[in-house]
Amino acid sequence: MIGAALQALASHWRRHPLQLGTLLAGLALATALWSAVQAINAEARASYARAASQIGGATLDVLEAPGGPMSRARYVALRRAGWQLSPVLEGRTRLGEEQVTLLGLDPLTHPPLPAFEAAMQADQATLAQMLTQGGLLLASPELVSALKDVPGLPPLRASDSVPPGMVITDIGLAERLLARPDQIDRLLILPQQPMQLTPLDQLAPDLQRRASRAGADTARLTDSFHLNLTAFGLLSFAVGLFIVHGTVGLAFEQRRAMVRTLRALGLPVWLLAALMLAELLALALVGGLLGLGLGYLVAAALLPDVAATLRGLYGAPVAGGLSLRPSWIVGGLAMALIGTLAASAQALWRMLRMPLLAAPGLQAWAQRAAQGDRRMALAGLGLIAAGIAALALIKGLIGGFALIAGLMLGAALLLPPVLAALLGLGRHLTRGPLGEWLWADTRAQLPGIGLALMALLLALAANIGVGTMVSSFRLTFTGWLDQRLVSELYLTARDDAQGAEIARWLAPRSDAVLPIRAAEFTVQGNPVTVYGVVDHPTYRDNWPLLDRTPDAWAQVNAGQGVFINEQLARRADLWPGDVVQLAPGWVLPVAGVYSDYGNPTGQAITALPALLTHARAVPNRRFGVRIVPEAVPDLIEALRAKFDLPASALIDQAGLKSRSLAVFDKTFVVTGALNLLTLGVAGFAILTSLLTLWSLRLPQLAPVWALGLTRGRLARLELARSLLLATFTALLALPLGLALAWVLLAVINVQAFGWRLPMYLFPLDWLRLFLLALLAAGLAAALPARRLYRLPPSELLKVFANAR
Amino acid sequence: MAGLEMGANLVAQEAAMLQIEDVSKTYPGARPVLQGVSLHLDAGETLALTGESGSGKSTLLHLAGALDGFDSGEITLAGTRLSGLDDSGRAALRRGCVALVFQQFNLIPSLTVAQNLSFHARLAGRQDPAWIRDLTDRLGLGELGARYPEQLSGGQQQRVAIGRALAARPALLLADEPTGNLDETASDAVMDLMLELVRVSGTALFLVTHSERIAARLDRRAHLSGGRIA
């Protein structure tokens, strides 16, 4: 009995291979984009975890000096007092053409590191070599191959355990490479300590003890980025499920007669339900596997750009390669199964509740959907209201995404009733039989193509919203760069001594030499970089202040006030007039808040003398040079000749701006790619809907053809109908997209990155997207229209056959 | 109306509204449906075509209505030879000269009864509101104008289909088992109406039916068997 029933059910798919293909394609696309995003996220998080384990002592407390590094003598004194500590020196430096994070450790006292252990297992002499004069640099295989031809470097050893972009070495060698002799950034407090030690707060009251957050900062900072990606993955998944929902709904309706017959022949309804469920799950498995394969390819293609984004935006170490994780496969298949069940539940439930003698009715399927318009409109309004309420009640990033979900899904549900109203209006305004028929028939088609149009609405709104956000960001960023990068030339000396020498040499040859000096502090438990500036009009005239006290610059230049960046202001809720403690005994009023795009961490600015009073060993290697722009090339030449500076140490304003913009643009490559993919899926949804509805269309078109319209004219009208619906959908997507952009700029960005951006409008981008939507809809409609145009009259006449 | 104006196809045949001469038709991969069929229908005349299922009745009706092409022979409709017409010419002829009534009614589901009634006439550019009002009254559809086809009974739907067909005052009405879906009472009522309206409008009627009783009510009858006129 089961075999016969299965054979009967499967015969539907044999008769409708296109429908089967559509169903599998919908499932595969939904799973693919979701899985691709998950693969990217998993790879990135694995890289953070690897980085955290390498940085070492992730579970150990750390001793730090507020305001800068401590001296080696300090470490020696604490060791002599009996404390078991391990010194760490860490900094960014350039090796050859590579910007790397150099981590200097003491191999004898540092807790075991996977990279050390792997190197030791491979070669017992590693430790000895690390301690000898020549030293040894441990790096990822990719970095080793990039550095192998750099002259003057110590021997390199590749280790898979070292995160990308990081070099681990002995602290002595790190001192030399970072040009920071006799300095230690932090001391790891080892777990095994002798009894009856003098407490650290007595031995070193000026040092701060804190639990290590190694890796946690990266994870926290990048959480918002991954949440954004996940939201996009979910959107694509939902768009794909629209295809599945539409196809399964139609397939079930077309099988009503068969189901009725099977039940009349004695097949129990529960068995029928089980067989149909099994059939759906088998299809979900096949579609899911196809989607996983496709998702892997998409992820592999996008991961290098994501890695570049994470490095550029957060300095997060992410490898560019993708590995196949069992959890990813299981997760992707589970999503495919859950998605299929969710998309099919309604159709399955309706089928099982169908009375045995109910007549099959394709028309009824469309009519039922139309009757649901009012319910859909109410549900849509309810979802939008729920989203707004969620933001008010939950707040934060989750509240923001809840608002986006409510807006998008609510608007999608509102689309069919709104389109129906517009088509009704068009019908009232039209004179002439063909026009009336076109509007009325288009209205009648809505239930069948509504889901695909919802997918198009979501894809277009996402494009407009994200596009407006990115373009607004870019415009703001460009203007901000003009304010921030005022100096005509920026240079970095090899060390402080050379820095001082260059500053002296430059003084008579330039309008001003502005030192760029900073030290690390901790504000409310978060790292903050405090810059010291000299009193110069360059800052007063250009610095992009968002909010300020009346005498802000006077306060800051006198060391009696501090500017903080927007991120710190929002995170710590500090605004002009508040006071901020930068270090024990160093409390300053906030004189202003400035925009600081692209920087994930807190930043502050005060007078240089004040900084030097509270921070030790503030490097003096970087300078901004004010000079007439025409003189910059000659000055660069002269500096190179005089001080033997590498090309990377001197960069003019234009070069720095173009480099910054390149990093910015790279950041949104992935967003753009996901946008396009989502739009592609929506276009595919329209195509599949039109093809699936093909069998329903002929009985509606044949009478009009018989009354005297050519097939060519009907085909053109079919094309026009799709373009009309796409036009309405695109026009409705515009306000939704702008609402999405506002939420992204005013809620999500503030929560995720700590800055709020002004919103600009880009009508030319909308026009381009509008044309793209019409092209997608036109292409999707072209295939069925061509089919109609070439359809033999005998096929159309079958509609009138008495045997139907 | 381009098809009607094609001079090469215009042949003065005042008497015969429809002239079918030695027409044959074979669908690809099937045996011949029609083999050398000839018959004619004068203006205002009514003709019943009977025959077994599969004898080719509907196919001949479709060919006469310029809905499909034939392999050999000639069909002349209102003086226009169909063999020389392209798709546009055939469509123009269907709009201007012919009207069709099918067993399945084949109304346009997205239009109201009133819109369905006037649709063909407006398409043909021959809307005559007084005639359509008259038709509506005679067909008893006055109360149903705002309804949609799905809200009507089978008999009501067929009355709308007949009204739609005659609203354009066609020269030839082609009807394929127009009462096949109706019970005897409804069938008689529909036939009474159709014959009366055909008479009033001076339209020729070419009707395909299985029913001897209905065939007997028309001016002439022809029987098709195995693709040939018996």
Architecture overview:
The complex is a heterodimer of chains A (804) and B (230). In chain A, helix 2 (17-55) runs antiparallel to helix 9, helix 2 runs antiparallel to helix 12 (326-353) and helix 14 (373-394) packs antiparallel against helix 15 (396-429). Chain A is α+β, with helices and mostly antiparallel strands. The radius of gyration of chain A is 33 Å and the shape is elongated. Residues 359-363 of chain A have low confidence and may be disordered. Chain B has one domain: P-loop containing nucleotide triphosphate hydrolases (Rossmann fold). Chain B contains 7 helices and 10 strands. Chain B has helices at 57-64, 87-96, 113-123, 129-139, 154-167, 184-201, 212-215, and strands at residues 16-26, 32-42, 46-51, 72-77, 80-81, 98-102, 172-176, 204-208, 220-225, 228-229. The model of chain B is unreliable at 1-14 (pLDDT under 50).
Poorly predicted regions of chain B: 1-14
The CATH topology of chain B corresponds to Rossmann fold
- SS class of chain B: alpha/beta
> What is the C-alpha radius of gyration of chain B, as a whole number of Å?
17 Å
Subunit organisation of the chains = heterodimer
Q: Count the helices of chain A. How many?
A: 28
**Which CATH architecture of chain B would you pick?**
3-Layer(aba) Sandwich
* Assigned CATH superfamily of chain B: P-loop containing nucleotide triphosphate hydrolases
* Estimated radius of gyration of chain A: 33 Å
Helix tally of chain B equals 7
Beta-strand content bin of chain A: 5-15%
Major β-sheet profile of chain A: 10 strands, mixed
Q: Largest chain interface and its two residue counts?
A: A-B, 34 and 37 residues
Strand content of chain B: 25-35%
Mean pLDDT rating of chain A: 82
What is the straight-line distance between the termini of chain B?
A: 35 Å
Q: Distance between the terminal alpha carbons of chain A, to the nearest Å?
A: 30 Å
